[in-house]
Amino acid sequence: MDSTTATAELGWTAHPPSGWEEVSGYDETMNTIRTYQVCNVFEASQNNWLRTKYIKRKGAQRIHVEMKFSVRDCSSIPNVPGSCKETFNLYYYESNTDSATKITPYWMENPWMKVDTIAADESFSQVDLGGRVMKINTEVRSFGPVSKNGFYLGFQDYGGCMSLIAVRVLYRMCPRVIKNGAIFQKTLSGAESTSLVVARGSCISNAEEVDVPIKLYCNGDGEWMVPIGRCMCKAGYEPVENGTVCQGCPSGSFKPNQGEDSCLSCPFNSRTTSEGATNCVCRNRYFRTDTDPLDMPCTTTPSAPVAVISSVNETSLNLEWYPPHETGGREDVVYNVICKSCNSGGGACTRCGDNVQFVPRQLGLTEPHVYISDLLAHTQYTFEIQAVNGVSDQSPYPPHFASVNITTNQAAPSAVSFMHQVSRTVDSVTLSWSQPDQPNGVILDYELQYYEKDQSEHNSSTVKSQTNTITIRSLHTGTIYVFQVRARTVAGFGQYSGKLYFQTMTEGKQAFAGLQMKSDCKRIAFMM
């Protein structure tokens, strides 16, 4: 309520009618307003009441009353009795309905509740009246808690000469505010001036709670204080307008996590398809691994290795090459070597078997070279050197590769892997062995080397055999011999087999056969 806004009579109730009088007056800026005045100072025992109309509480718990008034200095009034006052009393009366009459509530302190006695800081005299000098006092009082639907204000004069120029009734509230990413609706202050009223906040649109509960406190002066908790813009949204709005990331930008950070521009080779993106999608033929950060550019597969150099040595091969010109934007390029053997008749090539050896390995080479062995002699091979990186397995296309065709040379046969004793006598031993695993051509013959175990290898004897069985004669009785065998083709001799030890029989002992030994097992076979 604000009496200064009235354009007609205020219509407040005066008791008795000869007390307060409603008149037109002026405020401090000389605007016309409706006021009440009383000046019955020459009559004793004054008790003049003025009651406002019914004022709705509107949920307020504490009411503030601002009063503007002027008071005549009693000493400036000639012949005034000692009962002259320069103060008045302020009261209030609560009611759920507008039920006041000219009689009720009764014009006394009970049922009325006294707020305070109001005194003027300045009073005016006859001289001020002559010079038309206005001395207006402003006082503010508050009361509470109030709980009913509304109330009346009462002003009691008990012997003063004064003018009630303006009355303004108000309550204090904290305004609607956005703070820490949350909306707090307007909140009425508490019943006491020291009260703190808790207000719960709700996250602004497209924000999420970080700390809970989210609340502010409204103090008795209608000011927010002690913020607790906060909301932050969710992924895909950034704070704007001083953190009061969470705005979706514009097209071409993204924000991967909740927080106060701004949106980031999409990294190279990526884009967004809509606003509010949490990540950027890689463009066609570009990819991102599961471990690549979202702000890393999308990458692609590398181009093929270049300048492959091959060097064939019989059935082994050295391959070297240079890295690809384009790495796809990554630093994790490695190489795979694919081996294919091809028929000389022009048929389809097939993958090489597991017998082919790659050093250091066939797949995942970090250096641009590899040594390949155990190839077949006189065979055509195709080797594909693939360049791959961390996103190659995501591409629907096969890796880029450089290829090289080679033909292996004639090679000596591999070593004999198995030899056993067929029979023996006091001066002979009959031995048999398997054909080499890789003959690499037609076996022309075999060469057997033997010597007594206690003698040096330099004292060995050799004998040739057209087959894989031979009997060595003229040996010493009961003596251990060391035997080794190797095969020969047109390319020459292969390597000797491992050393095997066999013993001739002693005098009077029967021979028996069947003792078998593998060439890589170096043990003595005693035939007793």
Automatic annotation (TrEMBL):
Entry keyword set: ATP-binding, Cell membrane, Glycoprotein, Kinase, Membrane, Nucleotide-binding, Receptor, Repeat, Transferase, Transmembrane, Transmembrane helix, Tyrosine-protein kinase
GO BP: axon guidance
Fibronectin type-III domain segment(s): 301-411, 412-507
SMART domains noted in UniProt: EPH_lbd, Ephrin_rec_like, FN3
Catalytic activity: L-tyrosyl-[protein] + ATP = O-phospho-L-tyrosyl-[protein] + ADP + H(+)
Residues of the Eph LBD domain: 1-179
Pfam families per record: Ephrin_CRD, Ephrin_lbd, Ephrin_rec_like, fn3
InterPro entries xrefs: Ephrin_rcpt_lig-bd_dom (IPR001090), Ephrin_rcpt_TKs (IPR050449), FN3_dom (IPR003961), FN3_sf (IPR036116), Galactose-bd-like_sf (IPR008979), Growth_fac_rcpt_cys_sf (IPR009030), Ig-like_fold (IPR013783), Tyr-kin_ephrin_A/B_rcpt-like (IPR011641)
Subcellular location field: Cell membrane
EC number: 2.7.10.1
Molecular function terms from GO: ATP binding; transmembrane-ephrin receptor activity
Membrane topology recorded in Swiss-Prot or TrEMBL: Single-pass type I membrane protein
Signal peptide: none
Gene Ontology terms: cellular component: dendrite; plasma membrane
Protein name: receptor protein-tyrosine kinase
